[in-house]
Amino acid sequence: MRIVLDASAAIEIALDRAKGSHFAEVLQQAEEILAPDLMVCEVINAIWKYHEFENFDLSICDDAIDLGLNLVDSLVPSSELCREAFLLARTARKPAYDMFYLALCRRADATLLTLDNSLKKEALRQGIRVG
Q1: pTM of the predicted model, to two decimals?
Q2: How many domains would you assign to the chain?
Protein backbone atom coordinates (compact mmCIF):
# COMPACT_ATOMS: atom_id res chain seq x y z
CA MET A 1 0.00 0.00 0.00
CA ARG A 2 1.17 3.50 -0.83
CA ILE A 3 0.45 6.37 1.51
CA VAL A 4 0.35 10.10 0.82
CA LEU A 5 1.19 11.80 4.09
CA ASP A 6 0.05 15.35 4.68
CA ALA A 7 1.63 17.84 7.06
CA SER A 8 -1.08 17.53 9.71
CA ALA A 9 -0.51 13.77 10.06
CA ALA A 10 3.28 14.18 10.00
CA ILE A 11 3.08 16.76 12.81
CA GLU A 12 0.77 14.49 14.79
CA ILE A 13 3.38 11.75 14.65
CA ALA A 14 6.37 14.04 15.20
CA LEU A 15 4.85 15.61 18.32
CA ASP A 16 3.49 12.29 19.61
CA ARG A 17 -0.03 13.62 19.79
CA ALA A 18 -3.31 11.69 20.20
CA LYS A 19 -3.55 10.07 16.76
CA GLY A 20 0.20 9.94 16.18
CA SER A 21 0.59 6.30 17.21
CA HIS A 22 -2.27 5.22 14.91
CA PHE A 23 -0.73 7.11 11.99
CA ALA A 24 2.70 5.63 12.76
CA GLU A 25 1.20 2.12 12.66
CA VAL A 26 -0.37 2.84 9.27
CA LEU A 27 2.97 4.10 7.95
CA GLN A 28 4.76 0.95 9.16
CA GLN A 29 2.52 -1.11 6.88
CA ALA A 30 3.13 1.11 3.84
CA GLU A 31 5.25 0.04 0.89
CA GLU A 32 6.00 3.66 0.10
CA ILE A 33 5.27 7.01 1.75
CA LEU A 34 4.88 9.97 -0.57
CA ALA A 35 4.15 13.67 -0.19
CA PRO A 36 4.16 16.69 -2.47
CA ASP A 37 7.24 18.80 -1.77
CA LEU A 38 5.06 21.60 -0.41
CA MET A 39 4.67 19.42 2.69
CA VAL A 40 8.11 20.66 3.78
CA CYS A 41 6.85 24.25 3.86
CA GLU A 42 3.70 23.25 5.71
CA VAL A 43 5.60 21.28 8.35
CA ILE A 44 8.05 24.14 8.90
CA ASN A 45 5.20 26.65 9.20
CA ALA A 46 3.30 24.48 11.68
CA ILE A 47 6.38 23.98 13.85
CA TRP A 48 7.12 27.70 13.71
CA LYS A 49 3.60 28.36 15.03
CA TYR A 50 4.19 25.96 17.94
CA HIS A 51 7.44 27.76 18.73
CA GLU A 52 6.04 31.27 18.30
CA PHE A 53 2.63 30.91 19.94
CA GLU A 54 3.00 27.95 22.30
CA ASN A 55 6.63 28.55 23.31
CA PHE A 56 7.91 25.17 22.18
CA ASP A 57 11.63 24.84 22.90
CA LEU A 58 13.88 24.99 19.83
CA SER A 59 15.23 21.50 20.47
CA ILE A 60 11.67 20.11 20.40
CA CYS A 61 11.02 22.02 17.18
CA ASP A 62 14.20 20.75 15.54
CA ASP A 63 13.43 17.17 16.53
CA ALA A 64 9.85 17.47 15.26
CA ILE A 65 11.04 18.88 11.94
CA ASP A 66 13.53 16.05 11.49
CA LEU A 67 11.07 13.36 12.47
CA GLY A 68 8.16 14.77 10.45
CA LEU A 69 10.15 15.19 7.26
CA ASN A 70 12.01 11.89 7.58
CA LEU A 71 8.71 9.98 7.54
CA VAL A 72 8.49 10.48 3.78
CA ASP A 73 10.27 8.21 1.31
CA SER A 74 9.72 10.45 -1.72
CA LEU A 75 8.86 14.12 -2.06
CA VAL A 76 7.17 14.71 -5.40
CA PRO A 77 7.83 18.10 -7.01
CA SER A 78 4.78 20.34 -6.93
CA SER A 79 5.53 21.31 -10.51
CA GLU A 80 4.62 17.75 -11.55
CA LEU A 81 1.24 17.96 -9.77
CA CYS A 82 0.27 21.60 -10.34
CA ARG A 83 -2.08 21.22 -13.32
CA GLU A 84 -4.08 18.41 -11.74
CA ALA A 85 -4.13 20.23 -8.38
CA PHE A 86 -5.42 23.35 -10.12
CA LEU A 87 -8.15 21.36 -11.87
CA LEU A 88 -9.17 19.73 -8.59
CA ALA A 89 -9.18 23.08 -6.79
CA ARG A 90 -11.40 24.61 -9.45
CA THR A 91 -13.87 21.76 -9.63
CA ALA A 92 -14.01 21.05 -5.88
CA ARG A 93 -13.76 24.74 -4.92
CA LYS A 94 -11.16 23.82 -2.31
CA PRO A 95 -7.76 25.36 -1.54
CA ALA A 96 -5.16 24.43 -4.12
CA TYR A 97 -2.62 23.54 -1.41
CA ASP A 98 -4.83 20.67 -0.28
CA MET A 99 -5.46 19.48 -3.80
CA PHE A 100 -1.76 18.71 -4.34
CA TYR A 101 -2.19 15.87 -1.84
CA LEU A 102 -5.26 14.55 -3.66
CA ALA A 103 -3.57 14.84 -7.04
CA LEU A 104 -0.68 12.76 -5.73
CA CYS A 105 -3.06 10.19 -4.25
CA ARG A 106 -4.77 9.82 -7.59
CA ARG A 107 -1.52 9.60 -9.51
CA ALA A 108 0.02 7.02 -7.16
CA ASP A 109 -3.20 5.13 -6.36
CA ALA A 110 -2.41 5.88 -2.72
CA THR A 111 -4.29 6.25 0.55
CA LEU A 112 -4.35 9.71 2.13
CA LEU A 113 -3.25 10.11 5.74
CA THR A 114 -4.47 13.40 7.23
CA LEU A 115 -6.11 14.99 10.25
CA ASP A 116 -7.84 17.58 8.08
CA ASN A 117 -11.55 16.66 8.11
CA SER A 118 -12.38 18.85 5.14
CA LEU A 119 -9.61 17.22 3.11
CA LYS A 120 -10.75 13.74 4.21
CA LYS A 121 -14.28 14.51 3.10
CA GLU A 122 -13.14 15.77 -0.31
CA ALA A 123 -10.82 12.79 -0.76
CA LEU A 124 -13.68 10.40 -0.12
CA ARG A 125 -15.89 12.37 -2.49
CA GLN A 126 -13.18 11.97 -5.14
CA GLY A 127 -12.99 8.21 -4.53
CA ILE A 128 -9.63 8.39 -2.74
CA ARG A 129 -8.99 6.06 0.19
CA VAL A 130 -8.38 7.69 3.56
CA GLY A 131 -6.41 6.03 6.36
Answers
A1: 0.95
A2: 1
